[in-house]
Sequence to fold (404 residues):
Amino acid sequence: MPQSLSPQQLKTIAGEFGTPLYVYHAEKIKEQYEKLVTAFDNMNTVFFYACKALTNVNILKYVKSLGANIDCSSINEVKLAFHAGFPAERILYTSNGIAFDEIAEAKALGVIINIDSLSNLEKFGKRFGHSYPVGIRLRPNILAGGNLKISTGHDKSKFGIPVDQVEKILSLVKQYDLHIKDLHIHTGSEIKDVDVFLKGIEVLFEIVAHFPELEFIDLGGGFKVPYQDGDSETDMQLLAKKVKEEFTRHAETRGKDLQIWFEPGKFIVSECGYFITKVNVIKETHAADFVSVDSGFNHLIRPMFYDAYHRIENISNLQGPEKKYSVVGNICETDTFAWDRKLTEVNEGDYLVFYNAGAYGFEMSSNFNSRYKPAEVLVKDGKAQLIRKRDVFDDLLRNQLEIL
Ligand SMILES: *Cc1c(COP(=O)(O)O)cnc(C)c1O
Fold:
């Protein structure tokens, strides 16, 4: 039985903690992590949770307790990972266009580092030479992912060093005697087609022979999760089988001794999350029946930002007749969550739940319109506990210096 929280449980939690509210279900995180581990259990594979999806420190500690490593996108995420108890050797910092100071700081902290530009690779070589192993983030020039805004590996993307510049990489490696320990690619988000990962492996195996000190191949994250009825997730069993075949095929070019890394974010935490809102106002117009909830893109930006689809359910009226609504927020800016969405009849005061709210939900929230960021609750072993307080008025003024 897949792990999930029932509408009744969510209603009780909303009543206790108020709305808008993010709720995370620990056992669902475990289920997702175990799916990965089980699928790859006969291979030399390690999973790094891409924590930018959701960084509440309780989530980080929980993911650590499951045995996962962690992938970070900023030096502060690295520090949060230490705070959550990860040792340096389980922390990976995959950098994107960052100042070299941060790379030097990550090195001083002893974590694993992926470098994504020739410029920083050269600075690293000049400063540290062979003394500290480092990984290279490559851009494989493959177009993949849910849509262009969440695609990162194509030939116009800013991410990674284009694989067509491998000669330049090699000359830096030679010049500074760099110790290259891993090659990394991350092609995009919501990749269902397992062949995309295989294409990535092909690209990497064309060049692995140039890196004799290589120990790991890092295939990034981007696994798809289901968002609506009929959707499916990346088939992990199939992916594992095909990755294994691919590595066996390349056995003579070191396919046998390279450890495989993955960096799943969304796959681990998307479905564990529920965002509960309350209906403020219903407005019937010629164009649509608008349902305004006590939130907006200040709390869940994905629909407006990259047309993400979130299933919505009226948990206050599960059996009512269905009608079509446009679900919007309460901020002064267009903040549509869903157009023409079928919901069971909605009344003011009802709770609407947004599913798949664990990844890139709270994490991308803001105080726009001077509204408070939502609270966060973790449900574990059947018990709901507050893991982040809702903002209060003082939070809006914190850090402001009143000079007038
Ligand atoms: C964001 C990111 C991931 C995770 O992507 P998901 O789509 O959440 O799985 C993995 N690796 C890197 C380098 C990333 O930037």
User: Anything to note?
Assistant: The chain has a mean pLDDT of 95. The longest strand covers residues 273-284. Residues 50, 52-53, 71, 73, 94, 186, 189, 220-223, 263-267, 359 surround pyridoxal-5'-phosphate (CB under 6 Å). The radius of gyration is 23 Å.
